[in-house]
UniProtKB/TrEMBL annotation:
It comes from Actinopolymorpha pittospori. Residues 1-19 form the signal peptide. Pfam families: SBP_bac_1 (PF01547). PANTHER family: ARABINOSE-BINDING PROTEIN-RELATED, BLR3389 PROTEIN. The keyword Nucleotidyltransferase does not apply. This is Multiple sugar transport system substrate-binding protein. Keywords: Signal, Sugar transport, Transport. It comes from the Bacteria. Transmembrane segments: none annotated. Gene3D superfamilies: Periplasmic binding protein-like II.
């Protein structure tokens, strides 16, 4: 990013903070820009040596699995002490993280960042480019789609912790009661939704109150690539073929009242709908399996998993919703130990086992392709081997998707622009057009060159 762009990008931080929209400021770090190739700083031997020295690291994360992962790491490396701090999930953490970065004190060594947020902090020069430490050699440990999510304009700004390949969770009891067949295409999904609503107007095919994360994932599945960034040059095209393909499909579900658009995700009414069979399906990332088991334990044995429906019969395309990485902050005074900690959490076999045993989704190919994980029968899902579906979905996620370098902001204004379509006051294509206009305007205000 050019210097004048960085100044304007940083100048927008104060206004963003007031609006509680976390945007990564451009700090005073000497790290290279995301699209530059850094020179080597250290080797793996240096990183390994750092883990044998007395060190204290601060780690910000909200995932419930991290507590036991940290304990196992400290057992493996007793000289490294990790202070795990939960400062709230996603946007709550990002706001606090940006505040300490701006203040220049209280910055953690390592932070959990969703893939949607990682580019903002990378372009803000707040994250260490791991390429300078030889960490790119770990590339083959991950699926191409997951690996691409931690690479921003040529820089490697974290290591994957989990992923969110799309799947369709469905209620077996509801499908049995109304003699519904599991849909394999979106056309079949719409037809099934009509049959369900005709049989019982109190039930819906799925919940979706209008959220950017699911929208991006389904556009991704449709082959869309609406965002691209190369340094300060950003392109936004929410009228590409994939975006409009999703809009045409989802418009039918909304306008015919086939999905519940009034219950936001994780609201009490949303949770109740998943529990009592109000919703026949839930389209989301693979992490939804853990969410159902932890939030809706009373529905044990009633849910199943199927591949996400396809836009084309016989297709196998997928997208991803959610997932996060562990990133090292440029302000860390213990970068080598922090990098070693991140490597261990992301790719160590013991760490991966703890992660999946506690409901997390794996990111490494060894775990994704391992018989023990693939063949695991999950009681909550009626003994189904759900991981085989998730693994196949991971393989079918198209690599090359990019999030905006200010994706957190863009997602925060999704409802303002696309929301009217969910209340039948507009259509999705028009909503996407309006959303694009605001995204472009904001990016230009922040010093990017957006078209």
């Amino acid at each position: 990013m050019i210097r004048s762009s960085r100044r304007r990008f940083a100048a927008g931080i104060a206004a963003v903070a007031v609006a509680a929209l976390p945007l990564a400021a451009c700090g005073s770090s000497t790290e290279d820009a995301p699209n530059a190739k850094p020179s080597a700083v250290a080797t793996q031997a240096d990183i390994d040596a750092a883990l044998q020295k007395e060190t204290t690291l601060t780690f910000w994360a909200w995932g419930p699995q991290y507590a036991d992962v940290v304990k196992a790491f400290e057992k493996a490396y007793p000289k490294v002490h990790v202070k795990l701090q939960n400062n709230g999930s996603n946007n709550t953490e990002y706001t606090k993280l940006q505040n300490v970065i701006t203040a220049g004190s209280g910055i953690p060594d390592v932070a959990q960042l969703e893939y949607t947020a990682l580019p903002q902090f990378a372009f803000g020069k707040s994250l260490v480019d791991l390429n300078a430490y030889g960490v790119a050699s770990m590339k083959d440990k991950y699926s191409p789609s997951i690996w691409s999510e931690v690479n921003v304009s040529g820089g490697l700004f974290g290591l994957p912790q989990d992923g969110g390949p799309l799947a369709m969770f469905y209620r077996q009891d509801v499908f049995d009661k109304y003699d519904l067949k599991v849909p394999t295409t979106w056309d079949e999904y719409i037809a099934t939704a009509k049959k369900l609503r005709a049989a019982d107007p109190k039930k819906y095919m799925a919940p979706d109150a209008g959220e950017a994360g699911l929208t991006n994932a389904l556009i991704w599945q449709a082959g869309g690539k609406p965002y691209s960034a190369d340094g300060e040059k950003v392109t936004v095209n929410l009228a590409d073929e994939g975006s409009l393909k999703w809009a045409k499909t989802w418009d039918q579900l909304i306008k015919q009242g086939l999905i519940d658009t009034s219950s936001p995700s994780f609201s009490p009414e949303w949770s109740q709908g998943l529990a009592d069979g109000k919703y026949a399906t839930w389209i989301t990332g693979a992490w939804g399996a853990g969410t159902l088991q932890n939030r809706i334990p009373q529905a044990k044995g009633l849910w199943r998993v199927a591949p996400v429906p396809q836009y084309e019969a016989g297709g196998k395309a997928s997208g991803a919703q959610g997932g996060s990485a562990s990133s090292v902050l440029t302000a860390s005074k213990n970068k080598l130990a922090a990098i070693g900690f991140v490597q261990w959490m992301s790719a160590n076999e013991d760490a991966n086992k703890i992660w999946v045993d506690e409901g997390g989704f794996p990111s490494t190919t060894n775990m994704l392709g391992g018989d023990e994980w693939l063949n695991r029968k999950v009681d909550y899902f009626g003994g189904q081997q759900i991981n085989t579906i998730f693994a196949e979905s991971t393989e079918n996620v198209s690599p090359g998707w990019q999030f905006l370098p200010y994706e957190v902001y863009a997602d925060s204004v999704f409802s303002d622009n696309v929301g009217p379509a969910y209340t039948k006051k507009s259509d999705l294509a028009a909503g996407l057009k309006q959303w694009q206009e605001q995204i472009v305007s904001y990016g230009n205000q922040q010093g990017f060159s957006v078209n």
